[in-house]
Amino acid sequence: MRLKQLCFFLLLVTCNLLLAPDGRAVLTIEITQGAETGLPIAVVPFRWEGPGKPPQVVSDIIEADLARSGRFAPIAHKDFFSTPHEDRDVVFKDWRLLKAEALVIGGVKAVAGGKFQVQFRLYGVFKEAQLAGFRYTVGADMLRAAAHQISDVIYEKLTGEAGAFNTRIAYITREDARAGVVYKLQVADADGYGAQTVVRSPEPLLSPAWSPDGKRLAYVSFEDKRAKVYVQNLGDGKRETLAEFKGINGAPAWSPDGKRLALALSKDGNPEIYLVRLDTRELRRLTHDPAIDTEPAWAPDGRSLVFTSDRPGQPQIYRMSADGGEARRLTFEGDYNARASYSADGKLLALVSRHEGRYHVATLRLEDKALQTLTDTALDESPSFAPNGRMILYATEVRGRGVLASVSADGRVRQLLKFEEGDVREPAWSPYNRELQYKE
Amino acid sequence: MSMRSLVVVPILAILALSGCAGPQELPPVEDKSVGAEAAGAADQAPLEAEDLLAKKRVHFAYDSSTIDDEARAILEAHAAHLAANPRIKIHLEGHCDERGTREYNLALGERRAQAVERLLRVLGVAGGRVTTVSYGEEKPIAPEHNETAWRLNRRVEIVYK
Question: What are the record keywords, sorted (chain B) (predicted)?
Answer without folding.
Answer: Cell cycle, Cell division, Cell outer membrane, Lipoprotein, Membrane, Palmitate, Signal
